[in-house]
Design brief:
Elements lengths: L1 H52 L3 H4 L3 H35 L1 E3 L6 E3 L12 H13 L60 H8 L7 H6 L60
Antiparallel strand pairs: 1-2
Amino acid sequence: MGFLDSLQSSVNRGMAATGRATSTMKLKAQMSEALKRRQALAAQLGASLYDVTKDDANLRAGREALYDGIAACDAERAQCQVEIERLEAESAAATAANSYYVCPFCGSHVVTTDLFCSGCGKPMAEITAALSAQQQAPAAPVAPVSGAAACPQCGAPVNAGDAFCMSCGYNLAAAPAPAAVAASDPEPVVAPVPEPADEVASLEAAPVPEPLDAVASEPVVEAEAIETVVAPAPASVTEPAPEPIPAAAPAANVCPNCGTPCEPGDAFCMGCGARLS
């Protein structure tokens, strides 16, 4: 019995030690969480106290390095924020300059910052409204290609040997075989029209030309020589040289209505929409 009592006592002491160690670990973890919460609250309190006491000379006494360090950090953060906003503005401006619309009325490229189309003079509001209407319009169904197989349920084109439609999943093997297309009647061949009998008779009754010997035996009458009279050439008259006309100075590429500079080839003003040509 003494051995069993000693064994039981050892087991009890081991279980008690294990329980104490477990409780200690739990308490340490709880203390760590409480410390994190305290630090977060202290940071919030310190930030609020800094905003209230940064201008109080009595409270700043002896803590000038801390206050000056926090002020330097705030100034650096503000400068970085200003630089970030500038870079974002430049990026947005570059994106807007590189983006354009295709005018639905004339097909010209219209930059998003323009007020009017340089090709047809339409205002930007009308161009964007037309583009929105085109995007909202439903797409026209694609007609099946003549002679190509199509799904009997949805009409989508299918390839030869497909077991199912790739659009609706219809079982093409169970579909009835398409009716044979009737062969089109061949076009009639036009027979040649026989020539009239009168023309044939007139060709037969035409006189036969005489042989060359008979033509050569006839005397040839020589034509009399005709004297050629050459008229004298008229005397050339010297005309006075025209005076040079001074070239007109090129007009500046500006709108005559509002004075906005225009590019060569623009048909309308980008500032007021007036026709230039």
